[in-house]
Amino acid sequence: MLRTLLAEDLEDIWNISPNTTVFVKEANFSEACHTLRHAFFGGQWQEIRTPDFWLNIHHLYFTEELVIKAPTASWGPVSSFFIIGTVINQHLGLTEENLEAPGQHYLECIQDGCEVDHFFTDAPVIRLRFALSPQFIQRLTAAFHVPADLKPLIETGIASSFYSQGKTTPEMHGVLGQILKCPYQGFLKQLYLEGKILELSTLQFAQFAGSSYSQPCPITLRTDDIERIYQAREILICQYSHPPSLLELARQVGLNDFKLKQGFRHVFGTTVFGFLREFRLEQAQTLLSNGQLTVQQVAHVVGYSHTGYFAKAFKRNMELVQRLISSVGVKWLSRVLENWA
Q: What pLDDT digit, counting tens, does each position of 43-57 carry?
């Protein structure tokens, strides 16, 4: 039996059905994890918000064939990637019915109207959607071409409605997997996802613009740029337990985030995120060697909100493990590692 639900019906279903929400709020970052069980459908979805992007990850199942209609007034550009499942989608007055399925991605900007999604019985859906702020999109234009549909927004600040489909490349699949399996919590999660969303956006925009992500505009570093990149490293060192986001770091040193990312790798041979992770683990190794703090205390001091994530990151770095063995002894470390497991 085909059922049609409106936005107000979904709100009623949420209010009367077993559901939970876990909410995490930090500076410039919030995450809500929702779960729902209803006779028609259920599942879980994450909503992540920062000043520069939002990200939704849906894991849904359907026990009834459903058509969901919802208003879409004043949407900005939204990117959508299907990992599992198929949906028939239509923006009334703008598009015909489109089959949205794995292996495809979509970029849409809807200023007014109604979106219709047709979900099928016993067909689970895993879908990732995100949107960038206009300022974030402006930064993309500094280093890469953007799709023609986005140019009115960039040039005039006024968005026009459009809907585009593309093919998901192996590079995009790799980034999607990394987003879905993000191993971090707290600020590290924000920093990690920020970089991955930027990477995925660049891949998508480059495809729609007919250019190649593998051939970005060559980076040119002036002496002043290199000084700013060293300044960025010093900020990370001084604030390693509570560092600024990638975009905030770029603002602080007066570079756009593309030049900071590419320049940092060029100068130091690693990414901003990679440098921060390794520096934190170096500090942790020193603190553990001193033997004055517990593992939980060390994890907190170096900026990990969850001891388990700290343990996994530390144990993956065998050089640090070997150095710790030489300073505290293998028996002590083995006992500690067993407690971490």
A: 999 999 988 889 999
Q: Which of 14-28, 38-52, 56-70 has the lowest mean pLDDT?
A: 14-28
Say yes or no to pLDDT of 314 above 70.
no
pLDDT exceeds cutoff 70 at 75: no
What predicted TM-score, i.e. pTM, was given to this entire model? 0.65
CA distance 285 to 237: 15
Specify which residues 201 forms β-bridges with.
none
Reported as type and span, the H/E element at residue 225 is: helix 223-238
Assigned CATH class of 2-209: mainly beta
Place of tokens 């190649």: 212
Do the Cβ atoms of 253 and 267 come closer than 8 Å?
no
Q: With contact defined as beta carbons under 8 Å apart, do 169 and 203 qualify?
A: yes
DSSP per-residue codes, 6-62: EHHHHHHHHHHS-EEEEEEEETTEEEEEEEEE-SSEEEEEEEEE-SSEEEEEEEEEE
Maximal C-alpha separation, the chain: 70
CA–CA gap between residue 98 and residue 88 (Å, rounded): 6
Distances (CA, A) of 126 to 45, 123, 134: 9, 10, 27
Tell the burial category of 229 from Cβ atoms under 10 Å away from its Cβ (0-12, 13-18, 19+).
Answer: buried
CB atoms < 10 A from the CB of 20, how many? 10
